[in-house]
Specification:
The chain is built from 4 helices and 3 strands. It is of the alpha/beta class. Helix 2 packs parallel to helix 3. The termini are far apart.
């Protein structure tokens, strides 16, 4: 008799555990679906222009360069083709014999209407060579 009672309690506990698991699964599945709906409705909206395009602040893009990799010209050209009303590109190269200078001069010639300048040589301001390279552009 005690074993029958123990088996009944065990069966009831397992049924309760199974019911809890089913309820938990349904709640989590519902939350997942709700998050998908929320994302589609609220997070997928186009940003409204809170500021007129022409009144956006000007920005300076400082680009430290050293050497040439296969995609350097394409990567730099993407900065020259930005659709932003007021920006300048400050290209900073440490050494006078750096091959990146030729790439920069090519882009400066291709985009004469873009406010872009090339700075060669750095200033020793710390131990980080990239920061030292950027200093001439930063000082402008």
């Amino acid at each position: 008799r005690s074993s029958d009672l123990l088996m009944a309690v065990m069966e009831l506990a397992l049924q309760g555990l199974a019911l809890f698991g089913l309820v938990l699964f349904i709640v989590l599945w519902f939350m997942h679906c709700l998050s998908i709906v929320y994302t589609r409705l609220h997070l997928n909206k186009k940003a409204t222009d809170s500021q007129p395009y022409s009144k956006l602040p000007g920005v300076s893009l400082l680009k430290p360069l050293k050497g040439v990799d296969p995609n350097l010209i394409n990567n730099l050209e993407s900065f020259f083709e930005l659709e932003y009303p007021n920006f300048e590109i400050l290209l900073c190269v440490q050494d006078h014999d750096d091959p990146a200078i030729d790439v920069c001069k090519k882009l400066l010639g291709k985009y004469p209407n873009v406010d872009a300048r090339l700075f060669i040589g750095g200033q020793k301001v710390g131990i980080n060579p990239k920061i030292n390279n950027l200093m001439p552009g930063y000082d402008v």
